[in-house]
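WARN retry 2 of 3 for item q-0093 after timeout on previous attempt; input resubmitted unchanged.
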Amino acid sequence: MARCGVGSRRFCEKCISEGHVKLNGKPVTEMGIKVTEGDIVEYKGRKIYPDRKKVYIAFNKPAKVLCTNDDPEGRYVALNYFKDAFPYRLHNVGRLDYMSTGLIFYTNDGDWTKLIAHPSAQTEKEYIVETSKPVTEELMLKFVKGFVIEGIKYRIKKFYIKNPTKVHIILTEGKNREIRRFFQFHSMKVKKLHRIRIGSVRLESSMMPGSFRELTRKEIESFLPKEGS
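OK item q-0093 returned
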């Protein structure tokens, strides 16, 4: 399924356990079942096939756009911007929430997704955050040390305060709505959350919201394990 572009291995395992996958017309809920040539695999009623070409896209997500393949409420999804240019089953690598903007990857390579998104990869992601109140160094040092909210520990790697209400944040964990929850807990509204970098790939100023480009071979390979590691 990962090689068919459905998603990362972890996501595919979740789909199987939830009964969204069929093999030759029969539901599959167990992991590790072998698929041979001629077998028919369906995901949510649609046949899936391995893509011969692997695609890797950098997309500058605008606000009020969802990082999902479809939305029951009919809201605009990121795939709408480039689905005609790339006729493959693409999925997002990680997420940006509905109001957040900036760099996100799309691909049909589930193994590559795992290399970036798995917590053990420690992939750096850099954000520009604009807040409703001044940000202090004392507050940000709490974030670096690690701060527990409702039993979940949130932690960033680095920060750079650019002005009283703007800070650059670098993190590697990327828990759900991590930055927003931290500032909200401290009675601060996040007015803007914009991702400008994932690993070695930086969002160029020439890429307007809603625009996209294919990653270079060098950029793709920068996320692969280094020889001897």
